[in-house]
Amino acid sequence: RDRDVFIPLDRRAGIANRANADIFVSVHTNASYNRLAMGIETYLLNWTDDEEAMKVAARENNIPLERMRQVQSELGFILASLARESKRDESVKLAGYIQRSLVSEVQSRHPVIPDRGVRQALFYVLLDAEMPSALVEVGFISNREEEKLLDNKAYREKLARSIVSGIHSYLSSVPQHRVAAGDEKDSRNYSPRQVRYIVPR
Question: Is pLDDT at 90 greater than 80 in this prediction?
Answer without folding.
Answer: yes
